[in-house]
Amino acid sequence: MWRDREIEFHKSIPILKKYTQEEMNSVMFNYIWEHFPLLQKGFDRKIYPKARDSFFGHIGIAYYRYQLPQKVQDKINIADDYVKNEIINRFKKLEIESIDKWAIQYKQSMDELGVKKYTKSSIKGFFDELGLKVSSIVIDTIKSKL
Question: Considering the entire predicted model, what is its pTM?
């Protein structure tokens, strides 16, 4: 078993060396975005390491990542930072586009429950029910709109 992992690792090195930084960024982002759809609902520090480790397993370096040549390690580290930032930026864009819609949905759900006082904790609970990890700025903005 360890021998198979080692063979896979040595096969992946030439492929990783051929990738430009942009290609590495794209390959890593596309894999994580496709295989971990929960990250599309907000950056989650609990899910992202699992996604990154899954990607490393996918490209054959999970057990030997720190034995890669330094240039390849640097390329992977830069891609890792890129992917984190891209996920965060995409969700920020979604937050900006959806904040008014979310405020209306929240108000409607509170009206249905007969609640007239809007609190940050109830707004946070609303987003937890939707499965979204929104920033505190979004919660504050929605509270101020109501």
Answer: 0.77
